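Reopening this one. Same input as before:
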Amino acid sequence: MAGQLANGRHGGAIHDGPVHDLCREFAPHAEQIQPLRQRVLEVAGLSELFRVLADETRVKILYLLAQGELCVCDLATVLELSLPAISHHLRLLKAMRLVTYRREGKNVYYALADDHVLRLIEVALAHDEEGR
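Same output, byte for byte:
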């Protein structure tokens, strides 16, 4: 089978029998390649966003902030985490422009940066509920 290595490996996976989920021969469709190369550039860097969202605590923080603005102390209390731990997560969320903050006296309040973040959460929740 074209594209299959002598040891029976395809892209790191070992196959004992015939492979039904791969092309039988390597024959890319040239007319589709260039437009797709341009399209793939549109998602370059998105993996960093998903890496930040892959952490359970950060997802919980975003979900809580979707309910409304909260101070750092409230987040730490609800999630039963230390202030430095919450601060670490919020710093990453700020760097990805997922949250904003404001200072009021001795407290710092966080909120979702925009409706896009809320939609990410809603879509992820809907997808997760589909599989149940």
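So the earlier flakiness isn't reproducible anymore. For the record, The helical segments are 30-41, 46-53, 56-67, 72-79, 83-95, 115-130.
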